[in-house]
Amino acid sequence: MATAKRDVRNHVLFEVATEVANRVGGIYSVLKSKAQVTTAEYGSAYTLLGPLNRNSAAVEVEELEPKDPAMLATIKSMNERGIKTLYGRWLIDGAPRVLLFDTGTGYYKLDEWKGDLWATAGIPSPADDHETNEAIVFGYLVAWFLGEYVYHEKERAVVAQFHEWLAGVALPLCKKRRIDVTTIFTTHATLLGRYLCAGSVDFYNNLQYFDVDAEAGKRGIYHRYCIERGAAHAADVFTTVSHITAYESEHLLKRKPDGVLPNGLNVKKFSATHEFQNLH
To answer: Which domain of life is it from (predicted)?
Structure first.
């Protein structure tokens, strides 16, 4: 959590997700729809962090040289230690700045990081789960970046918001390392909730009765569930995007969310549709 000596009114905001300039699912749309208003509010103090997908970045990102001295120094330091990055402007409304990490250049430390994740947070990780391996490498790169960034940026407070379990590995690392960053974890739907809803169970009427560890284990997602739960508990602020997901999270992740945040949609773009519907 940021200390009192930093300027909280003039803070830096990072938003961390695996779908930054990389369309996979719904998080991409959430980020894209809120980018314009966030950039208008924060300007160059707002940067999205994500893994680098070179195919999508080639058409979605215009590479730029960072103007923030702390950003420049941090990227330079990581580059010198073998981590490749792409910094630039995301070519969407608002043109927010993005920093994308080439996770492939961090795999030389995967085994070390997996061992550290177990020692630090008690989170296991099987060898054959590529998606989890990607989440671990990305999480360690983000924690590395944030740790270096706050070393170089000594004046302004730093806030980082993380979306979903795939971006959640960095949260227990930030807490354990006491990185001077205020963290927010936002879940849009819990992992275990998705699986339980897909099965033949009376989900919402039995939420309080589930043995969550056993249920996650039966579905082969215990390690992913541990990442999600660890992120929820390590964050300074835990949020969801709906009251029903908040209720779900309280029982499945064992932490009551601190608040419910709207899902980032730019409602002005949809007002014409609503007016048309109202006329009918």
So the answer is: Eukaryota
Report the distance separating Cα 115 and Cα 21, nearest Å: 30
Q: What does the alpha-carbon distance between residue 215 and residue 168 come to, in Å, rounded to a whole number?
A: 21
Burial of 155: CB neighbours in 10 Å, binned 0-12, 13-18, 19+ = exposed
Residue 149 three-state SS: helix
Report the amino acid identity of residue 272: A
Residues 6+ apart with CB under 8 A from 19: 25, 27, 28, 31, 50
Tell me the pairing of strands 85-90 and 61-63: antiparallel
**C-alpha dihedral, 41 to 46 to 51 to 52, nearest 10°:** 90
Q: Per-domain residue ranges for the chain?
A: 7-279
- 7-279, what's its fold? Rossmann fold (3.40.50)
Helix count (H) and strand count (E) of the chain? 11, 9
Could you tell me the pTM of the whole model? Answer: 0.91
Among 157, 189, 183, residue whose Cα is nearest residue 169? 183
